[in-house]
Amino acid sequence: MNETYELSVVIPTLEEEGRIGRLLEGLRAQRGVRLEVVVADGGSGDGTPEVARKAGARVVEVGRAGRGVQMNAGAKESEGKWLLFLHADSVPGDPDLVRDALERMRWEEQRGVSERVVGHFSLRFEGKGREERGRFYRLLERKSALNRALTTHGDQGMLMRRETFEAVGGFEEGLGFLEDQRFVAALERMGGRRVTLGGYVRTSTRRFEVEGVRARYATMTLIMMAEAVGLEAFLADEEGVYAPQHRAGRLRFLRLAKTFGEALLAGDRETIRGRIEGLKTLGWHNLWQVPFGIDVWLWPAPHGPTPLTDAWTRCVAGEGSVCREGGAGVECASKSRSPAPLKARRRAATVGYGRCSSETAERKAPTM
């Protein structure tokens, strides 16, 4: 390992000639950090590798496409103590982003809550449709800062120590997507945790605009439902569910919904009953999105208040709670003597941008 590199940025690419240059320029502009850039290419037929090499990046030619496969290969060839995984269309929001993120990660480690921490940034969308569908994209941006379950995705970047990456076992390679969600799930099973870092990355609206905003968002919901109850047959239809960006087209959502329903109802009665119960639990854990969506509609500013979400969280957590600040969110856990309903106590709630009527931890994260 080259001790001169503090951090390695690993970027999976496939037919990204028109996008990769802007990201590489943004990484060259980063201040106060010694970094290398590793582009893990999945077999691009355009000029992606050449653009990357001309910009000074190391290019790793991966035998097959798939973000998990590519990022694992790139990490293996990298030399930094820290690893930052970025998508080709996610660009640093300012030249101090990476330096400040590393400072925050070290602070999180010193807290001693967990030895294994993965940091992610908030998102700012840009591109076609951003202004016309401003409230929709604002909702996604606000959600990206919450640090709640199922709100952390690879396009937000994933920053971690190499030891953490290796302890988890790298990214799963079975599918061309969901490697981010499965990595986080494995991390949390080991006692690790996620944190929202200061700053943001700019990312493209291109998939939403090409596939259709409503259809893509609804399909994302089906993907999360299928992942929650193990519908691998549905997820295996990668071309229909989550095609590579360069092959993406208008989604046939009704066909996907039919396929999902068939996969859900396949098997014996006990299996189907278990899946239905799993979906009920998933729905309960995500009901906070209803008041949150109303909050964003009423107060669309980037750091607008979330009174309805806060009220919901207090209701779910039970009477009274202990909250601590973390990233852009507030983690709340019930301290009620009279227990909340069982389902409400299954998961501690996390609220972003809001206030929790309780005590907060004295230690503060470094200001970025």
UniProtKB/TrEMBL annotation:
- Compartments in which it is found: Cell membrane
Q: Gene3D superfamilies per the record?
A: Spore Coat Polysaccharide Biosynthesis Protein SpsA, Chain A
Task: Give the record's keywords alphabetically.
Answer: Cell membrane, Glycosyltransferase, Membrane, Transferase
Q: Name one GO molecular function term.
A: glycosyltransferase activity
Q: Tell me the Pfam families matching this sequence.
A: Glycos_transf_2
Positions of the Glycosyltransferase 2-like domain: 8-167
Q: Which domain of life is it from?
A: Bacteria
Protein name, per record: Glycosyltransferase
Supply the source organism for this entry: Lujinxingia vulgaris
